[in-house]
Amino acid sequence: MLESNCTKINFFSGEDIPLEMHKVRMVQRLNLSEVERRLAVIEEAGSNTFLLPNREVFLDMLTDSGVNAMSEAQYAAMMMADDSYAGSETYYRLAATLTDIFGTKYFLPAHQGRACENILANAFVTEGSTAIMNYHFTTTKAHITRLGGRVIEALGEQALNTVSTDPFKGNFDMAKLRRSVEETGPGNISFVRIEAGTNLIGGQPISLDSMRQVSAFCKEKKIMLVLDASLLADNLYFIKTREADCRARELADIVREIGSLMDIIYFSARKLGCARGGGILTSSDEYFKKMRTLVTLYEGFLTYGGMSVREMEAINVGLRETLDFNVINQTPLFVEALGKALEAQGIPVVTPFGGLGCHVDATRFVDHIPQEQYPAGALAAAIYIAGGIRGMERGTLSEQRQPDGSETLAQMELVRLAIPKRVFTYSQIKFVADRLAWLYQNRRMIGGLEFEDEPETLRFFLGKLRPVGDWQKALAKKFRKDMPSGL
Ligand SMILES: Cc1ncc(COP(=O)(O)O)c(C=O)c1O
């Protein structure tokens, strides 16, 4: 297994910038259109960055999901896949790798992360039951509430503080967890879920120590413990670099310990393993049996679960590469570089810098926009106008309305500028910082958004909005005035 040098490479000049530990041997051409076209395109997309055609996007920082760069070893492995409906050799190879890495006995394949969540929810969530977690993820919560379950969050006090020095803002508040279990009663709890690399609060990691404490508590109370390992790669980097007793440990050894603490692990392989797919792991015969029929019902036969065998081969190699420090350090180092460049311009970003992407704090960036007018959504649209950069709203738009139709105001209003693994170069990161600096100087021009077409569930994916007033047109005009001949 690969395990490379874990020391940071220093520049003689003293500059603190990330260094790419790979070379680029396949490229995709990009286009940056005129600001007038960007304005027309975002209007057509209902100010929703999910609805932008990719040909109109210069830097796609929407997500890391399914868009990470793959290694040559992954592409090579895809050529050697065993395409059979049942009992494919590819399945056995991937299952053996997962057992090797996590120490778990069973592997249930599924086509992506939310498919695993669908299976978990159908197997274990009942009407009126409760799932406790450090923080929810959009699709996780939607699957639980759809079946009549509810979600309780047990994050620590620093977690929602966008300006913090807490190295593990994804950690559980054990007192809150205990209290929630006491009040709910262990018998009414479907599971406790740990999300590694807590997505919606800015890719913030959870420490191995916090995982240990939650695991011991769940064992004592006989509550099932589930790990969402979709963002484990970045989280692993932070465990290794920020947790004192892990610095000298091998990544493989840390992951083995994590595996031993959980009853069930699931992951989106669009993220973990840098391909496209997903899977559920467990060592429990009982849980395996409960979930396997759901895999055959919703996903496909037990040895492919809706995935292409070629993708399964790519996942197999990608998972092993996750144990290489020079692979998993790339996104966190680039997030840090972008974060520092933005901070230097006074732009509010979530600190400490996490994984997944750089998170701009819209609450402070556009503090004049009320939450009911979706400040983070408005800022994401403005960032596209400013530079053809596609980020993702992570705020009130990403929440679901209450049953009475009122808004659920998000605890944070963020725009995520995702940094898919090994995709962007350092000069592209500098371009992003430059365009955001221009936008920050013109931030008072940005206005709110209102819905034109609002889907009932997961409205942020497909909903269409319009600007309140004509601020988008005015912003594009100002850009043209400031940069008369530039793109
Ligand atoms: C933490 C977490 N869990 C689950 C998912 C869902 O995975 P997928 O997009 O593959 O359905 C995601 C996707 O972003 C995620 O970040």
Description of the structure:
The protein is of the alpha/beta class. The chain has 2 domains: 35-64 and 329-482, Aspartate Aminotransferase, domain 1, CATH 3.90.1150; 72-326, Type I PLP-dependent aspartate aminotransferase-like (Major domain) (Aspartate Aminotransferase, domain 2, 3-Layer(aba) Sandwich). The chain is built from 18 helices and 14 strands. It has helices spanning 35-44, 72-78, 89-102, 113-124, 138-146, 174-184, 208-221, 232-242, 251-261, 285-298, 309-321, 325-328, 330-344, 362-365, 375-387, 426-441, 459-462, 471-482, and strands spanning 59-60, 106-110, 130-133, 150-153, 189-195, 225-228, 264-268, 278-282, 357-361, 389-390, 392-394, 414-418, 449-453, 464-467. The strands form 4 sheets. It has a 7-stranded mixed beta sheet, with helices on both faces. A 3-stranded antiparallel beta sheet has the order 9-12-11. Strand 5, helix 7 (208-221) and strand 6 (225-228) form a beta-alpha-beta unit. The mean pLDDT is 96. Bound molecules: pyridoxal-5'-phosphate (PLP). The site of pyridoxal-5'-phosphate has 14 residues, from helix 4.
Major beta sheet summary? 7 strands, mixed
CATH topology heading of the largest domain: Aspartate Aminotransferase, domain 2
* Approximate shape: globular
Question: Strand order across the biggest sheet?
Answer: 2-8-7-6-5-3-4
Q: Give the ligands present.
A: pyridoxal-5'-phosphate
CA(first)-CA(last) distance:
46 Å
Mean pLDDT over all positions:
96
* Distinct helical segment count: 18
Percent helix: 25-40%
* Beta-strand content estimate: 5-15%
